[in-house]
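BUG: 3D viewer hangs when loading the predicted structure for this chain

Environment: internal workstation, default settings.
Expected: structure renders.
Actual: progress bar stalls at 90%.

Input used:
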Amino acid sequence: MATESILPRWVQTTVACGLVGAGSYFGIGMLVDSGAIGNGLEQEPVKFEASILEEPNDFFADIRAAAQLARERWSYAEHRRELDGVDLDANEAKALAMLGDEPTAASFDRAITFFVAGLHDGHSAVIHAVSDSPTLPGRARWPFTLTEVAAGIMVNGLASEAEGVARGDLVLAVDDRAIEDLISEAELRVFSSTDPARRRRAIDEMARWDDAESHRFRIQKNGGSVVTLELPLPRSFEEIADPQLIETARSHRMLESGIGYFRPGNFSPPPDSGWPGPAAGRDAILAESYAEIDAIIGKHQSAKAFILDLRGNPGGTDLLGQFLVDRFVDGDYTYFQLSALGMNGWRDFHPLGSSAPSGEHTFAGKPIAVLIDEYTFSTADNAAAALDAVHPDAIFVGRPNGAGTGAPRPFELPRTKTKIYFCTQRVKTPAGHMGEGISIELDIPVKWTREDVLQGRDPDLAAAITALSK
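Structure tokens produced before the viewer hung:
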């Protein structure tokens, strides 16, 4: 059968950008792998089962093809089954049932998204062969943005259509459905490695793709009264950024307490640099980034302690992650351990130490606090895990990190030409356990309050300063 145009209702991709793989929680990233070790995945193309190729319906065929790919090539099938009960057979059966008796492009979109999101692989993605279609829904959005605070799910950004709603109000229900039920439903459509990251992303995203003209919102005002408002859904509006979604541009400063602060920004190579290219040329491509990081560390040599802010950091290349960790650790150390798929199955893990160039400056020997959250991801996860394992005085502050690591690859489904992504390398931390889906244990967990958001405070930073000052 001929497939219809398919619109990705929930276009979320996290595709590789580095040594082992890094990515982005926001939109389509770069697919650039540095080939840290040969993974063997291109040695033999996937041979789909005859029953898949002979299936008369394209949509049924490609759900089954996705399941075969995951069984044969996904690096974390066994790990995720043991960690949180991911069952590929059961997920395949549910996805096939979601197609219905007469599958459509829309039901296929829901089913393939459910299946791939159900891997609980933060680097997974679904990219449809046809990325846009005016005939399919999902173009409206709610008239406000949301953020989670201690009191509940809080309104943050507002559109002009949100008449009667104010920043700081809590959303209790939509069309008489409890907000927690809607979050649980949205969690089935997002690509994340941990439950906290899945919840946060569902809260961020569930208001962005909608079919309705309006909704009936039950709102609890900041003073405690509860109102129900029928509000139209705009197509778009100027948003107020989630204050917990920390800007990831590189910045640094010396705090009044004598503590240095550094937000390294994402670890991506410079745009239009020819990355990845030959391995021998990558240090040259990153030379300016190396020099800038080194100079920033040098400016804070007089600091008594240091705060490294990895919140909201989507990753990049582990060459930059390693270079950063080198500035805080003396001597040789293991950065991570890798295993790839070979002709005879998964190879043994082997450790990789730092291969980054030597810098002139170091902050080794002094205490550091690392700020992390649910959007700390991929290379940022690897760097944080390395510091957790090898730095003697590192503390971790904030919320559980996204804990996603491993080189993703695209696989094209044979009938609809939809591409799905998932990890194809196994990664262990220097401590010897899988990093995928297992967040770093926090020394100081922090939960934002409504007042933190409304007053523009940063309780993560405040907690780190207090801890280091002691």
